[in-house]
């Protein structure tokens, strides 16, 4: 009977262990599904917020565009920013309005003196919140690229000035040989305009 008791204890232990593993598996599976659903809900909520913000920004822009031209100039933009609803909406998405003119320049990507609906909406969405690492990296890249262009321009300018200097010497030499040294003024030392 000791053997039957041991088998019964082993059977009870094994069955309880298996049953608890099944229950634990069900809970873990449920938790994983719940976490996945939560993540999907967060993504959907973020997409909904972004879509709503885009629609609201578009509506704000269209209300400022009195001529229905699809763009606003600086004066219309200042009027838009004087509206309390607009200020509240822009503050709610993290855009602080210190100077309207500076914000207008930031949004006027093509320097046309007007901002289109696309420039306004996308610019405001970019300005939303704080700067992210990608924004700073993009800014650094653009700055380095501009410095590279400026350096190339300076090198080109130096070459052009050098070429002009060489041409000047050649012309001066030819003039000296044609007219003689006494008749040719030194163009490099002769002032072109008086400061009197």
UniProtKB/TrEMBL annotation:
Residues annotated as transmembrane: 7-28
UniProt entry tagged with the keyword Glycoprotein: no
Entry-linked Pfam families: EF-hand_7 (PF13499)
InterPro entries named among the record's database cross-references: EF-hand-dom_pair, EF_Hand_1_Ca_BS, EF_hand_dom
Organism: Alexandrium andersonii
Protein name stated in the entry: EF-hand domain-containing protein
The keyword Transmembrane helix appears for this protein: yes
Residue ranges occupied by any EF-hand domain in the UniProt entry: 52-87, 95-130
Keywords: Calcium, Membrane, Transmembrane, Transmembrane helix
Lineage of the species this protein comes from: Eukaryota, Sar, Alveolata, Dinophyceae, Gonyaulacales
Record GO terms (molecular function): calcium ion binding
